[in-house]
Every structure is written in C-alpha cells, then in structure tokens.
C-alpha cells in the first residue's frame, strides 16, 4: 500500500489497542511542525462511514475529560499525588532523559513555570525513566519545577491519557478545575504553549467555556501548522 | 478540525516509521530497516541478538551513520531512509530450531517525538528476497512475533529488566 494509504487519521494520539492501533499520522518533516493538541472529549472515534480510509476505523484515544488521580514518587522518593496541585492549572509533561525533543523543550517548560509563577499554574514533569538518571538530569539541567518519576507505573498513567502507543514527549494541559483542555503530542514550542495557556487562562477567568477553548486551540494549532508547512 | 480529526500534523506509529525485516544470506543474516521520511534510527541503539537456543550471532556490522548533533543530547550517528545490518551467525545444532533473532532499535521523528526502544523477534526469510514489512500488521504477521502488545509496555519491560532506555550517546 502506498504510504498515503497508511496514514492514520486523527490526531494525536494514541492507540487504545496495542501496537497496531496507532497514532494517526502523517510524517512531519520540519522541526517546527507542531504536535497535536487533542481537546478532551472531542477525541472521540469518528464514524467509519465518514472516511474512505480503512485505517480511520482504528480506535481513537479517549482522553479523560478530567485529570485522573494518580500518584508517583517525587525526586526524593516520596509518593506524591497529582491532587497535591488541586485548584491549579497544570502543565503535565511526560518525558524521559533519553529523549532528545524532551530535553529540548525543558528550557521552555522552565520558562513557562517562571512566567506563570503566582498565577495558579504549575508545571509538573513526569519522567518515564529511572530515578537515578532523572535525579542526575534534573540537577544538571537545573529543573526547578516538580518532577515525578515512574517506570511501569508512569506508563500506566500515560495510558490514562490515551497514550498506549509509545511516544514522548507529550504534555497535558488542565484548567484549575481539573478539566483536561488539551494534550499535545511531540515537542512543544513557545507559540503552541502560549496559545494553549492563553485559552487555559480564559477558562480560568471564565471568559469562555471549555468547548470554545478547545476549538480555539485546535484552530490556532491548525493555523500554525499551515504556516509552518506553507 | 486540525488536531482532532486531521492527519496534518500527526506522527507515524513506530512500526510504520521503522519497518524491519531480515533474510538469511549464506552465513549471515541481513537485517534491514526502512525508515520513513522525517524519521531516524540511532546507530548505537541497534542490537541484534540470537533468539533460537542453538543460534550464535556476532555483533551486527553497520555502516557509518549520518552525524547528528543535538545541543541537548550531543552527537549521535543516525540512519535515515534505510539501513542494513549484516550479522554473522552459526548454528550449534542446525535444523533443530527455527532460526530466530531478536532485534532492538530506537528512533525519533525529526518533528520532535521519540519512541522507546522497540524489540521484535524475527524469523529471517531464506533466499534472496528480504521480507520487508510494508505496513502493519499483515506483512509482519508471517515474519515477526510482536514481543508485547504495545511498545510502550515493552519499554516498561525494558526499563525494568534491561535498562535499555539509556541516552543513545
């Protein structure tokens, strides 16, 4: 089958059923190409009749509407619940030390954490990696936002966001009510982060409703992607 | 809406990004990866091991890769498009067991996404034609055993048992 026939539709993310059900895809050729934000609740399976591509019938991710509860050890080995930041908007970044794009986006995440300090937003890293490597790395890169660490348990948490398929980094954005506003697969860049966080802020200030925020994010990302590929 | 139902910015599943197949050619096994545009494999993360109990394999002979320098990961050799590893082998008790090898590899998308190490057990084909998986899943079903239901979970297994998620450097 030609490569175009192989393209899985549907964004970002994820495969619910193992290896073959996969990320919908298209080869991205540019470093600046964004990942995909999938506003929760909109990532439902399309009607197979709507697509001529058989692979479009593959299961789609079901991203939780609300942030699921989970706990992982922090850098000191203390079990920490994500609920520790209840009431704050969260930028939850799944990463690993072996992952180059994960490393590249850490300066941005540090900047976001600093820029939003005091505004009820927290960046939380979730390292899918070995604790000793993560501790060494966080010291070396001077990561000053909270980092939780897990191996299989972190993978299971990733699966709660529909990330059954292997891919890092990905970043989950929630508003202060714990609603999952977007999930961004791939290396996050400043324009995308600013776009999503702007909508999170709008949500927090009750200027818009969640569907409107999700739509604005999706459209904004689309415009950025078009600009990058155009 | 892009990001939800558009494929405009999505990434390939790992088994589409990196297709692997193997064939026996005399006293070597040739393992070939076909790599999608915009994706690359780390040279240092490629491993080929014996899976059959009577099989002995040498370290894979790999061509030089393209030097890739990432300010946050250092300098690596990577492969794009395709690469073939030549793996000398011998059998202790030829014929007693089907020839099986285990291949491990890891790669990323240039657009900023990395996959944990992928492990597959392959029955190399015999003859001049390599059985290259053109797409999942059908072509692979005859040549490979998927070592796990999901590569992420595979990665978890590797994390626990093999500690293979090291930096490629």
How does this model look, in words?
The complex is a heterodimer of chains A (230) and B (169). Chain A contains 6 helices and 8 strands; from the N terminus they run αββββαβαβαββαα. Chain A has helices at 3-6, 100-115, 131-140, 152-160, 190-204, 210-229, and strands at residues 36-37, 71-74, 79-81, 89-95, 121-128, 147-150, 170-174, 180-185. The two termini of chain A are 27 Å apart. Residues 1-34 and 40-60 of chain A have low confidence and may be disordered. Chain B has 169 residues and is mainly beta. Chain B has one domain (14-162): Immunoglobulin-like. Helix content of chain B is 12%, strand content 40%. Chain B has helices at residues 14-17, 138-141, 151-162, and strands at residues 18-25, 28-35, 39-42, 47-50, 55-57, 66-70, 74-79, 82-91, 101-105, 107-109, 113-114, 118-122, 125-126, 144-146. In chain B, the strands form 3 sheets. A 5-stranded mixed sheet of chain B has the order 5-8-2-1-13. In chain B, strand 1 (18-25) and strand 2 form a beta hairpin. The interface between A and B is large, with 73 and 58 residues.
Give the % helix of chain A.
25-40%
Name the strands of the widest sheet of chain B in spatial order.
5-8-2-1-13
Count of helical segments of chain B?
A: 3
The domain tally of chain B reads: 1
Q: Please give the alpha-carbon distance between the first and last residues of chain B.
A: 39 Å
Number of strands of chain A: 8
Largest sheet of chain A: 8 strands, mixed
Secondary-structure element series of chain B: HEEEEEEEEEEEEEHEH
The fold-level CATH name of chain A is Glutaredoxin
Measured by residues with Cβ under 8 Å of the partner chain's Cβ, the largest interface is: A-B, 73 and 58 residues
Uncertain runs of chain B with pLDDT below 50, 5 residues or more? 1-9, 130-167
Give the overall average pLDDT of chain B.
Answer: 76
The CATH superfamily of chain A is identified as Glutaredoxin
Q: How many angstroms separate the termini of chain A? A: 27 Å
How many strand segments of chain B?
A: 14
Silhouette of chain B: elongated
CATH-defined topology of chain B: Immunoglobulin-like
The helix content of chain B is: 10-25%
Q: Which architecture of chain A would the CATH scheme give at its second level?
A: 3-Layer(aba) Sandwich
Strand order of the largest sheet of chain A: 1-8-7-4-5-6-2-3
């Amino acid at each position: 089958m030609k490569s175009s026939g192989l393209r899985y539709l549907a964004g970002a993310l994820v495969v619910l059923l193992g290896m073959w059900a996969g990320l919908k895809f298209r080869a991205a050729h540019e470093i600046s190409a964004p990942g995909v934000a999938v506003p929760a609740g909109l990532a439902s399976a399309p009607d197979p009749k709507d697509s001529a591509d058989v692979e479009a019938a593959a299961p789609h991710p079901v991203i939780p509407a609300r942030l699921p509860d989970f706990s992982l050890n922090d850098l000191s080995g203390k079990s920490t619940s994500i609920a520790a930041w209840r009431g704050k908007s969260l930028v939850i970044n799944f990463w690993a030390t072996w992952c180059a794009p994960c490393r590249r986006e850490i300066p941005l995440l540090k900047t976001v954490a600093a820029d939003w300090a005091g505004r009820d937003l927290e960046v939380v890293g979730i390292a899918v990696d070995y604790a000793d490597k993560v501790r060494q790395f966080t010291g070396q890169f001077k990561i000053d936002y909270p980092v939780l660490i897990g191996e299989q348990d972190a993978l299971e948490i990733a699966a709660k966001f529909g990330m059954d398929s292997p891919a890092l980094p990905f970043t989950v954005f929630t508003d202060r009510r714990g609603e999952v506003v977007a999930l961004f697969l791939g290396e996050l860049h400043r324009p995308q982060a600013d776009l999503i966080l702007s909508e999170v802020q709008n949500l927090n200030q009750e200027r818009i409703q969640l569907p409107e925020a999700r739509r604005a994010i999706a459209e904004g990302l689309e415009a950025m992607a078009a600009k990058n590929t155009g | 809406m892009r990001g939800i139902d558009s494929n405009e910015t999505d990434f390939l599943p790992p088994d589409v990004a990196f297709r692997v197949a193997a064939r026996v050619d005399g006293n070597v096994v040739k393992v070939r990866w076909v790599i999608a545009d915009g994706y690359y494999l780390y040279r240092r993360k490629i491993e080929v091991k014996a899976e059959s109990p009577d099989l002995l394999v040498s370290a894979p002979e790999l061509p030089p890769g393209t030097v890739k320098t990432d300010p946050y990961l250092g300098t690596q050799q990577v492969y794009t498009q395709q690469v073939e590893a030549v793996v000398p082998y011998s059998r202790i008790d030829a014929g007693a067991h089907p020839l099986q090898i285990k291949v491990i590899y890891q790669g990323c998308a240039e657009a900023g996404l990395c996959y944990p190490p992928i492990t597959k057990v392959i029955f190399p084909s015999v003859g001049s034609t390599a059985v290259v998986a053109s797409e999942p899943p059908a072509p692979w079903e005859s040549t490979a055993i998927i070592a796990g239901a999901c590569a992420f979970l595979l990665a978890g297994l590797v994390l626990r048992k093999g500690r293979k998620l090291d930096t490629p450097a």
